Amino acid sequence: MAAASFSATSDDGAAVTETAPIRVFFIPFFASGHMIPMVDLACLFAGRPGVEPTLVLTPANADLIRSTLDRSAAAGRSVRLLLFPFPSVGLPDGVENIATAPASDTWRVHKAVELAQSVHDELIRLHRPDAVVTDIPYWWTTSIAADLGIPRITFHAVGCFPQLVMNNLFRIRSELAINNGSSSPTPIVTVPGLPGRSISIPRAELPSFLKAPNHMTAAWDRMKQAQLKCHGVVVNTFSGLEGEYCEEYRRADARRAWFVGPVALAANAGIERGGGETGEATGKECLRWLDEREEGSVVFVCFGSWCFFTDEQQRELAAGLEASGRPFLWAVRAAEENEWMEEGWEERVKERGLVARGWVPQVAILGHRAVGAFLTHCGWNSVLEAVTAGVPMLTWPLVFEQFINERLVVEVVGAGRRVWEGPRAEAEAEKTVVPREAIASAVTRFMEAGGGREEAAKKATELAAAARAAVEEGGSSQQDLENLIDELVAAGRRGTVESQLA
To answer: Where are the alpha helices (DSSP H) in 128-237?
Structure first.
């Protein structure tokens, strides 16, 4: 249903035409790393007069961001909620997100995504918004939107550089012999078609669907085909970070693209983002702990909501942090058990180390004066939030496109250093346990003078300034956001005229 219009009469008798708000649905994936930036984007839309954003969520996911929406509403940026039941996939009540599911059950969350197709179809057709902004896994929303004659915008929770790398390798995967079952596939792959410097990646570090056909291969193709047919793509990035890659992405992979990040910075996000009441309490504890530490002394350790370590690797990481002698704040997933922890370890490190279980306010932590380095898995949100805060990174990628993101951080922009120079792999069965000695050495060296942190911090500080400029009035991301909203408003108005003429 396109935006409705109605007529009234002014005091002088002249006709006045009023237009109802443009209604935009936002439908994120069941993972905090996707949901939180889309919530930020919806809040940005809410700041524009004449736009009525609605987040389409399941109940437990809505609970995680409800306080964020309350604060946004108090600031004059109201976002509506439309709830639907989480599909029944055998998870306990209230577990509706990758972040809260045990490692052995994450496949059930992906199954729930598949089952959400019919629900999305029903909700969009029933409520008939003027536009939909949906996560890339929800490829089916392109055809639903086309049936209704409304725009579907694909939301990307990763940047242009990793997308270009994966898209370019996907197109020529057979030529590179990375999916043909060869007993001796190319060990190092040089990515074709990228602007600027040459980028090479070991085959073992590439996402699985690029190395051999699997369930993700067909899914990736469906998602990309749907993206090509949709109205356009919105990406959480900014030109100061990915300038030449943004240009190439718009030219090669997305005829219409808007680069609107960092959305957390643009939305003035902070401690309240995505943790619910329990998360906020944990966040306040973390910030109080940081208040007692010296400036730039703390290593913040966080591997996101979607990454898992074996118990052995957890123990090695814990021992490495202890041996480094540096203060650290380590965020671990709430769904993790404590069997990995050596007896007495937490007691030994309590004077200089804090283990936070569950969600933590990463934006606020990275912005704290006490944090001097970020040991990260290189998830895209983490990369953006680190450069926004001007914090240098120690990189430890684990899965998916994270090894590709690391290339951007370390090789292209120089805002970080690798933790481990030994063999690494994306597939769990091929991973090497990084020993405690290597972890301790990497942390100690990076935090010492001449260990690379100063140079990385300088680059990160420059990127932080570029990020602020991008979201300020007249900045590249602010302009792209305005252009996107203008286009959706215009499409809604055209729809009104067309429906009236019909």
So the answer is: 141-148, 160-171, 215-229
Residues 6+ apart with CB under 8 A from 502: none
Contacts of the segment 194-203: beta carbons below 8 A, 24+ positions apart: 194/164, 194/165, 194/168, 194/245, 194/248, 195/244, 195/245, 195/247, 195/248, 196/244, 196/412, 197/411, 197/412, 199/165, 199/407, 199/411, 199/412, 201/165, 201/403, 201/404, 201/407, 202/424, 203/178
As a whole number of Å, the CA-based R_g of the chain is 23
Distance, CA of 23 to CA of 48 (rounded, Å): 12
> How many residues are given for the chain?
502
Active site residues: 34, 135
Instruction: With beta carbons less than 8 A apart as the criterion, state whether 27 and 132 touch.
Output: yes
- Tell me, yes or no, if the two domains 5-157+472-501 and 276-465 fold the same way: yes
Amino acid at 74: A
Domain ranges for the chain, please list them: 5-157+472-501, 276-465
Instruction: Say how many C-beta atoms besides its own lie within 10 A of residue 316's C-beta.
Output: 21
Written as tens digits, the pLDDT of the chain (502 aa) is 444 433 333 344 444 345 788 999 999 999 888 999 999 999 999 999 999 999 999 999 999 899 889 989 998 999 999 999 999 999 999 998 888 888 788 889 889 989 999 999 999 999 999 999 999 999 999 999 999 999 999 999 899 999 999 999 988 776 655 544 444 556 888 999 999 999 999 989 999 888 877 778 888 889 989 998 999 999 999 999 999 999 999 998 777 999 999 999 988 754 445 555 556 778 889 999 999 999 999 999 999 877 788 889 999 999 999 999 999 999 987 655 566 778 888 889 989 999 998 888 899 999 999 999 999 999 999 999 999 999 999 999 999 999 999 999 999 999 999 999 998 998 888 999 999 999 999 999 999 999 999 999 999 999 999 999 999 999 999 999 999 999 999 887 665 433 322 3
Pick the CATH number of 276-465 from 3.60.21.10, 3.40.50.2000, 3.40.1570.10, 3.40.50.300: 3.40.50.2000
Tell me: domain 5-157+472-501, CATH 3.40.50, correct? yes
